[in-house]
Design a protein that fits this description.
This is N-ethylammeline chlorohydrolase. By secondary structure, the protein is of the alpha/beta class. The protein contains 15 helices and 17 strands. It folds into two domains: 107 residues, Urease, subunit C, domain 1 (Roll), CATH 2.30.40.10; 295 residues, Metal-dependent hydrolases (TIM Barrel, Alpha-Beta Barrel), CATH 3.20.20.140. The radius of gyration is 20 Å and the shape is globular. The structure holds zinc ion. Zinc ion (ZN) binds next to loops.
């Protein structure tokens, strides 16, 4: 990671995602990690980066991932959600040590940063969350890290069951140690795993903690039909309806998946300004289904995009997720139902809104943090057409990312980690 924080990109094709959604050819100046000027022929004096013929985009935002699961890649194929959790993921998570989880996180971050991800919103396991903060700190990425909260559940190893009061006091310690550290680059989230692994007490107390400290409340919800049926048979109502009854929906709540909302539940999400993370590859790989993203966007629900963990994807490539999200929306709601500009938005400004960080990231605007990526569109797979959004979503690849910057610090140059 290169610490210097002042640069000028010259003659880039800039996809801004500013309020006017401008795309223009020109310069972007960065001082001390902040975007200070955007325009043509700027007279910024700092280190010049020749971006002629290159695309400059807001850094990609992973709205849902599990860094602790990177080392489980290929160890849990061919299973649906509950057997996947019970027979593989939970036992593997229970075996993690602080060192193994750090290595798993670094590996996942390396893959993501090289592909242009500048922010991750990650749900970790029950223990060793401090190791993941350390990995994010060392890798230079912007991150919202949560410790999984689980105090009950069928098939959960004993090691992963933690009484809610103990979990909350650990959360308090993590909050004190890591929240807003590294120049505000690292934040903590409150992350109950899902309704089936959390008592009512845990969910209520965890949400109160999130509200008290103004934190994102991030959980899985309605990923799989069997999960939704189990919630209904245990609790007598819909999964998302249950979260609403407990008062845990709201503008800082991020629900991952929402493949199986029941009648009226998308309305609850919209009314409460709850956010959604869409993980298309995972939803197909675990055989869960296809989320109704076009409908969510039409209703004004903010949606981000995620790879989920490497144990259910099995890569952490948002370029692939963008293309798949576009294809699935076309299949589910008709061709053209979600245009490529909106799809790129899921991985940039929409993602920033989904994780509650759009005041600082998600677009290239003066005053925002310099989280940027430079992409080389010279390869044969980019040639033809003049719609950059279409080319980015349908043609772009992770390997086309040449430069990655977070907070004005260079993490990738010439396609290599530095
Ligand atoms: Zn997940």
């Amino acid at each position: 990671m290169k610490k210097k924080q002042s640069y000028t990109f010259k003659n880039a094709t800039v996809i801004t995602y500013d309020p006017k959604n401008r795309t223009f050819t020109g310069d972007v100046c960065i001082e001390d990690g902040i975007i200070t000027a955007i325009g043509a022929d700027l007279a910024c004096k700092d280190d010049l980066i020749d971006a002629n013929g290159k695309l400059l985009l807001p850094g990609l935002i992973q709205s849902h991932v599990h860094l602790c699961q990177t080392s489980f890649r290929g160890k849990a194929d061919g299973l649906g959600l509950m057997p996947w959790l019970e027979s593989r993921i939970w036992p593997l998570e229970a075996e993690h040590t602080p060192e193994s989880i750090y290595q798993s996180a670094r590996l996942g971050l390396e893959e993501m940063i090289l592909s242009g991800v500048t922010t991750v919103c990650t749900m970790e396991t029950v223990h060793h969350t401090g190791s993941v903060f350390s990995a994010c700190e060392d890798a230079g990425v912007r991150a919202i890290v949560g410790k999984a909260l689980m105090d009950r559940g069928q098939g959960v190893p004993e090691k992963l069951i933690q009484p809610w009061d103990e979990a909350l006091s650990e959360l308090e310690e993590l909050h004190k140690e890591f929240h807003d550290s590294e120049d505000g680059r690292l934040k903590i989230a409150v992350t109950p795993r899902f309704v089936l692994s959390c008592s009512e007490n845990l969910l209520r107390e965890a949400y109160d903690f999130a509200v008290k400290h103004d934190l994102v409340f991030h959980t899985h919800a309605s990923e799989n039909i069997k999960e939704v049926e189990s919630v209904r048979s245990e609790l007598g109502c819909g999964n998302i309806e249950y979260l609403h009854r407990l008062g845990t929906l709201g503008e800082k709540t991020l629900l991952t998946h929402v493949v199986w909302p029941e009648d009226g539940e998308l309305d609850l999400i919209r009314q409460t300004q709850t956010k959604v993370a869409h993980c298309p590859t995972t939803n197909l790989k675990l055989g869960s289904g296809i989320a109704r993203v076009a409908e969510m966007l039409e209703r004004g629900i903010q949606v981000g995009l995620g790879s989920d963990g490497a144990a259910c994807n099995n890569t952490l490539d948002l370029w692939g997720e963008m293309k798949l999200a576009a294809l699935l929306a076309s299949y589910k709601s008709g061709p053209g139902s979600v245009d490529p500009g909106k799809i790129l938005g899921l991985a940039t400004l929409g993602g920033a809104r989904a994780i509650g960080w759009n005041d600082e990231i998600g677009s290239i605007e003066v005053g925002k943090r310099a989280d940027l990526i430079m992409v080389n569109p010279d390869g044969p797979h980019w040639q033809g057409g003049d719609d950059w959004f279409s080319k980015i979503v349908y043609c772009g690849k992770a390997a086309d990312v040449e430069l990655v910057m977070v907070n004005g610090c260079m993490l990738v140059e010439n396609g290599k980690l530095i």
